[in-house]
Design brief:
Length: 153
């Protein structure tokens, strides 16, 4: 797999977000701060959005951003956010520590853990939508585009 495609795959797996607005209601307290951080992380200028595995500065910034997001998560979503951030810290740290030719193999080794974290990632996505007003490009939804049937004559 080419490095650009692998970077795109990792970024997609890391819950790619579309920019949207969070509530600025001060009564939301830490939820509002969390929404703002989630929005920044999803923004077009964030390290996550511009992630390339050959740029260690962007990788380190992405990890830092995810861990900061997890540290500021409201209690209702804290465990899920921490689980997602921690796994992706492990994945990114491992993938950038190996040669580009080994990255796909290393990413595959995390498949079971990625499968286990799906519920947490979905909960984080739902929180972002319902509490922050964000719109996600969800890695969990299937396309409704019909697949053309091949007919034999």
């Amino acid at each position: 797999m080419k490095p650009q495609k692998l970077s795109a795959l990792v970024a997609f797996i890391l819950l790619l977000f579309l920019s949207a607005s969070c509530s600025d209601d001060p009564s939301e307290g830490s939820a509002s701060d969390f929404c703002k951080k989630l929005q920044v992380l999803a923004g077009p200028d964030s390290a996550l959005t511009n992630l390339t595995l050959d740029n260690s500065q962007l990788v380190n910034q992405t990890i830092a951003d995810l861990l900061e997001l997890a540290s500021e998560a409201p209690s209702s979503i804290s465990n899920e956010t921490q689980a997602v951030a921690s796994l992706y810290e492990d994945i990114l740290s491992k993938i950038v520590s190996v040669s580009p030719s080994q990255r796909t193999t290393e990413l595959r080794k995390f498949q079971d853990e990625l499968d286990e974290i799906t519920t947490s990632a979905r909960a984080l996505e739902l929180y972002g939508e319902t509490e922050c007003g964000l719109q996600f490009i969800s890695p969990f939804e299937t396309s409704n585009t019909p697949v053309p049937q091949v007919t034999e004559d």
